[in-house]
Records
---
Amino acid sequence: MIKRLKRLLLISVFFLPPPPELYAKDLIVTFINVGEGDAAYIETPSKERILVDTGNPAAGFRLADFLKAKGVILLDALFITHPHSDHIGGIFHILPGINVKTLYDNGQPISDASEYEAYRWYKEVRRGSNYRAVNTGDIFQYGDVRIQVLWPNDILSSNWNTNSLVLKIIYNEVVFLLMGDANAETEDALLREGIDLNAGILKVGHHGSADAAGERFIKAVSPLYGIISAAGENLQGYADPIIVKRLQDNNIKILYTYSDGDIVFKTSGKELYILK
């Protein structure tokens, strides 16, 4: 409770656009509505443009249209949390028209077995000279914005979600924690490592499924907002009602891409604006 009150004093939240003159100093993070899957677009105050995940193949056109509307022809970084199709699918829509300075992912091995045929094309993308695998401890500095890789520290699990990249975005007093499809196993490992997980905005792991967002983990993060990126009707049943209730019981405001659309945060590093 003390931690939450302290953060509320530091961060003022507004639901109206800030004055235009403040934009130049803002970090802008948009959780894009790509249906099933994840995609988050980041604009730093120093004008770097960064994308985390690209949604699924069928919704890739949404991502391409979003970036086109933003006038994006160059991404300074593209982070793929793991190579499941609802995270890599849109990459094939955007690569023809957008140059990517550096592609980062977790280095997840992909088998050449026939059942992995759908992932072969992503393996081809990885062969580019701009590709680099990252893991725990890697830090990327974009002006005053820092992106820390919290996980994975090794690719050991056969579960691709367990190996998902976990990224912490820090801009002064405002922190975003992006969990990709990280599950309870990942969360427990982060807790054992004693990593500082505290963040005001949490992109809930694995689309709010039952195998993520454990009680101890949620209390360690203690976010003000929880973002669930999922389709309104999906075969997996995301988000799980138990997880939704858990977030609500911890006084976390939940925003859903399928009902709220693109969710846009603008922050000076102190004030936080949510644009509707």
Note: Residues 75 and 186 are 28 Å apart (CA to CA).
---
Amino acid sequence: MSIHINANIGDIASTVLMPGDPLRAQFIADHYLTDVRKVSHTRNILFFTGTYNQTRITIGASGMGCPSIGIYSYELYTEFNVNSIIRIGTCGSYTTELRFYDLINVKAAASESTFAKNAWGYEEELQECQGTVFEAINKVATAFNTPLRIGNIHSTDVFYSKQPGTPPLAIKHNCSAVEMESFALFANARFLNKNAACLLTVTDIIPTHERLSATEREQALRPMMQLALETACIL
């Protein structure tokens, strides 16, 4: 029995979109889903299930960091028969070649985190997306003429650091951007033989210290939300 998600069996769809922020989950539910209802609110980590283009979808928050998404994704996969999770989040670019609003379909996540090793015995510092969702996202992006970048990203355990510049791990694995969750999601899906993907919107340019405002972010994330929702319809 799940101790972090208080939904009933059957309340959660087979495909879940996971922003980090509970209020972003509510925003998506309010603006894109019909026949929607809140199905979990434990610790104010909100989950909503509704319909988008005749497809039943759940939107649920992951919280921040590998430990948090590690808990929620594991319980979704094992307790609620979820087959596919698409993380939809923001990221900071390590390079000025990426610009605000760019969308990244993550191929693999590199991390200094010990999550994969301690949980499942995976020694690799790079965890790949799992299953068919990555290619489904590419297919939908092409159909809707949505510009999409593909590449590796850095899933860091550290938001603030005394070390400036791009970390050596990110350089080693050619990571163009940084976030905090995908590594654990991919590791869980790998162990459980489930589908996992990650879509990110660039909201910070680290070398120039530029970042979008809260208001700008709300509009910036809509293309990512729509791409993820449309992808969920073909899974």
Note: The mean pLDDT is 96.
---
Amino acid sequence: MSRTAHELDHRIEGDDMQCVEITLDPGETVIAEPGALMMMDDGVRMQTIFGDGSGKEQSILDKVFSAGKRVLTGENLFMTAYTNESSSVRTAWFAAAYPGKILPLDLRRFNGQLICQKEAFLAAAKGVTIGIAFNKKLGTGLFGGEGFIMQKLEGDGMVYVHAGGTLVERDLAPGEVLKVDTGCLAAMTGTVQYDIQWVGGIRNSIFGGEGLFFATLRGPGHVWIQSLPFSRLADTIIASAPKAGGKRREEGSILGGLGNLLDGRDVR
């Protein structure tokens, strides 16, 4: 069965810090997030685009609406298209900004639709529509945090999604429920129903350290879970950064300032 989207070939390099090489035949285009490019061959033209990335004819109003939806997910207003304008095969390489795995996913295997975390989308074939998926339940909107507004990828082409840290996949049977930290939900098929559920219990809420809410996923469908959401990585880096005056957070109550002396820092 032929595709309406451009047909891309790829090769993934690396283990925990992966990058993907996408092969472009003459005239083929890959759409990517700004800043995702690693390198590209001569003959590939880079062009900033405004819209949903599908390549379909759109009015100015439709383009503004499509781009505005991306802003709601926390992504850039623009995307970048890389087109092979030469007469022979060329390549473009893309990489994520933090450790993890790159998932090459064919939308034809998932009934033409995937839902993914807002930082997860890396690149896609021209012809794939990148939009947003709203959960209409009020609780999800008010308390969902990272799990509330997710990106919706639709079409019949290849998409490349990045999951932070270690990746775990689960197949959910009809009615089967899985509770996931909202940031750890990397992606899921469109058949999975999701909502936000309170952790419950005052002690759990205050002292549990896991946030106040879970993402509750109900099958049938397939889900991809990431062990290191970008927000968790960022929070850890910020918490460990030097404080005002050049002093960092101590390495523990036992070492205290001794930790600074051991690594050569001035503790005056």
Note: The CA atoms of residues 132 and 151 lie 4 Å apart.
---
Amino acid sequence: MNMKRDPVKAIFDLKQFGEYGDVNPSITDSATYTFMQAKTMTDVFHGEQEGCFLYSRHWNPSNKYLADAMAALEGTQQAWVTASGMSAITAALLQLCNSGDHIISSMTTYGGTFAFLSNYAPKFNIKSTFVDITDLEAVKNAITPNTRVIYTESMTNPMLQISDIPKLAALANEHGIKLIVDNTFTPMIIQPALLGAHVVVYSMTKFVNGKNDCVAGAICGTDEFINSLIDVNSGTAMLLGPVLDPLRSSSILKNLHTLHIRMQQHSRNALYLAEKLKEEGLVVSYPGLPGHKGHGLMKTMMNPDFGFGGMLAIDLGTGERAARFMELMEMHDVGYLAVSLGYFKTLFSNSGRSTSSEVPKEIQDEMGLSEGLVRFSVGLDHDIEATWQRIKHCLDMME
């Protein structure tokens, strides 16, 4: 990884003033934009004029400010922001794939992504093969002449596997296909584009925004790819229209400037809890633990300033035990029994019955997803020892 590039500096180096010099850029409250000359409007429609705004489904200043910040964060030439993480994922995939094409995806992936690839994309004759993304030979063997994309997550949901992005990128390049990486779990910690990924997608709903007060996504890539994505004649994002509201863009942009501090605290707290849970004899999955299969690999790719992230999982064996434990934790103020992640409070859910419920039971079994797996998104607690004591009390009540 190019450790000379500091993502925090890249974001803070952006000088984004409002039109009156306001320190927060002005919020765009307009769906359409004026032109002084008719030719300029024509040129914008044809993609021949940069720096002008046409219609907010295409670009607006608020969304451009946030997109530029996300591109700076990831080290890509451009970015585009969307109304949800799923719209970022689906728009990126559909821009690269046509009827008859093939996608290779990590078997362990967000349930909505799995459902799109397994159930929805086949309507357009786009088929997918799901593999263990940590088995590079399996990925290689799945490649066919019509494969267009390898899709994975930096840290997979919910099993917390670590994808070898440089080797997957090399494999993709060797066969002339694109590597798309969802980096939702590990912003600032891993920068997939610098490791060779062609496109990086986000659910900004999660850690990037950090407040669970909106739904949003982002697509980061080259000038060529982003321009194709928003082309008025053939761009998937332009024609399907998953535009992010400018008010939300402005809010996320402000929150982005505290992301580095938040990721450090999420990581510190998650590591502390993972170690304590391990000491209790529980089956714990956290990449920051030396016993995790992806620990060594992640260390070669990560920015060590931000730790191993805020996500961990434990296996309680059965869905009933998982449910009881989560109910106790909510009752004793550990956090909230809720889906999603990246919030300042700890969130926990039983993945097989919630965010991965779209994945068929036989595939859950194949990926090793226990019905008793509880996924934690560890919050920003100041006194993590006190949080641990509450968790320990809940574990004792389970006996």
Note: The CA atoms of residues 83 and 244 lie 4 Å apart.
